[in-house]
Amino acid sequence: MTSNRIREVSLAIFAKNGYEGSSLADISSEVGIKKQSIYTHFKGKDELFLAVLHDVFLNELKFVTSYIESHAHHTAEKALFGFLMAYKDRYEENDNTKFWLRMSFFPPSHLYEQVMKYVYDNLDKMESLFAPIMEKAASEGSISPSVGAERATVAFMGILDGVFVEMLYGGPGRLMKRIDASWYLYWRGVSKE
């Protein structure tokens, strides 16, 4: 039970303060235990951070998978735009997503390789989850044959990257402006009109 509580508190603190701005003393104080008690469950801050990162990685993939499954009956246009909006809402409300994006762009330098392995695994899995949506849209004639499903999927990941950057830096108004303009041009560029 304490291990799970340590992870929960660590997630919130890492999401808010980043790796460097978080201390085991802050975490233990928030959990209500002595700092030394953390070492019963984790070797140190790095191990705790990577355990939280692993949990968040699984939660973010679960969210993406669940969203795609629950919107399988929608058109590609509606499902993909809806995903951008759902992820915007998730970022505003969820420490998992805040932590995930912050660490994706600002990993601790000494843990860079371990963090980026999770980041690239996540991006590759997300791309593989979006690919069938584009393949279906292409087979139905919604995607221009000159674009193709693969290129449309990779371009969507580029849109998603831009949205992630605006989530971190821009605030809600700039984020919506970025989503609206990017989506408008993206969909008109890949769709068959």
TrEMBL record:
Top-level taxon in the UniProt lineage: Bacteria
UniProt-recorded Gene Ontology molecular function terms: DNA binding
Keywords from the UniProt entry: DNA-binding, Transcription, Transcription regulation
Listed Pfam families: TetR_N
Matching Gene3D superfamilies: Homeodomain-like, Tetracycline Repressor, domain 2
UniProt protein name: TetR family transcriptional regulator
